[in-house]
């Protein structure tokens, strides 16, 4: 049988959010498992819609003929959606987390487990795609941050990396710097203009809150201010759930405009798979270091103590203050102490492996719906994504064993080195660009599935917005207070409740009137309000039709917010480089 997933050659962008960006992978609770199950259900429904088997409308008015592909006009199987939702199992999700959590922090060991699990699921094609890539590691000596007081005394904090956490920002430049300390809050555009107006920051080391603003934006502002270095910490105001004052931020390392937070510089080697690193990354001559919230509180307390001795000292504006108790978040730079930062990071060439599994499509096997999750042997934050990916493999392999098959091929990919420039994802794109541009239908990213507890919040391409809405409306919510119009708790209604987006009714009315003038498919309703009251007003053949479906969606006054795709997102190269619609 011809392979569905072929090599490159010539050929004709759901995660669950609270209103925070806190990564809470360190503590897996029962509620997180439930939310993980909900995520699997939403993504599974979304894959089914994208794969096309039950995505088309009914064709009862069509006469099937030999000149038309049979599966292009066969009616959908309504049982498939119910089967998908029934096959989603919270216990299986929990089992997947346990399986991956037991593995040593070794990429090859994780690859072996993934391949073994996929063989059990009887995927039709399972492939290893090895490659070599730069990987940042802690140097031979630990990074250090010292407080040096005016009287000469010092307080030193040694930042060493364990297998459970990084203690450095990957690919940051190595250097020893010493300078006064300035609190910079989130270091977003407004904070940048405030610091610029106050004429502080130049020649100092900035202390910034991590996780609210993309690191690339923060470092760009720091560089423009003339700072000589940056310290990053997690502030309790930004991480209200499971805040750990001793934890270090999980700073990842992407480039090419991805938001896995890297400031890269030219390395002293080139690799076959990575020939021109320096030409692809931005160079900022700034050492960057992460510190714990506990250490950041100590630094802020030192600034407060100094500010009390100044007659003209004042705290920063209220919007720039963080969540530490008994800390005033003083403005200005330190004068009674300086900070000395020394970094000893290194970059080595590592052998990495992507794992690809395929469920072959029945009608269009050479068209792909790609579902991917990054993993990283240096980080436990990848466990949720790997568990979700394995759960999806289990669900769809079960459907295949029950004689179901998607219209298009479903490709599952476990990407290597997620926290190292999304290395596996970029390798896949580089090695199969022509094939992906011509054959991929959509990419669905499940790398970080659970980041909070309140609601889902999706990022995606406009082409897939309606598919997201449809998939989320099929899944029941874990929160009983999120009810749809029929009184059922759905993820769609929860999403709409937490992140509503209002559209101007004048625009909706204009769309409705133009549609009435152009066609009779809408019906004879005289006002847009009447049409909205009858969302299931089907036509004479029992179907509403794609046009009416679109129209009803277009004139809704409120819809859930889909976060606009940012070119700094780690999975954005699927859209920006290959033109493939993306959902996360």
TrEMBL record:
<dbReference type="GO" id="GO:0004180">
    <property type="term" value="F:carboxypeptidase activity"/>
</dbReference>
<keyword id="KW-0472">Membrane</keyword>
<keyword id="KW-1133">Transmembrane helix</keyword>
<feature type="transmembrane region" description="Helical">
    <location>
        <begin position="33"/>
        <end position="55"/>
    </location>
</feature>
<keyword id="KW-0812">Transmembrane</keyword>
<protein>
    <submittedName>
        <fullName>N-acetylated-alpha-linked acidic dipeptidase 2-like</fullName>
    </submittedName>
</protein>
<comment type="similarity">
    <text>Belongs to the peptidase M28 family. M28B subfamily.</text>
</comment>
<dbReference type="InterPro" id="IPR039373">
    <property type="entry name" value="Peptidase_M28B"/>
</dbReference>
<dbReference type="InterPro" id="IPR046450">
    <property type="entry name" value="PA_dom_sf"/>
</dbReference>
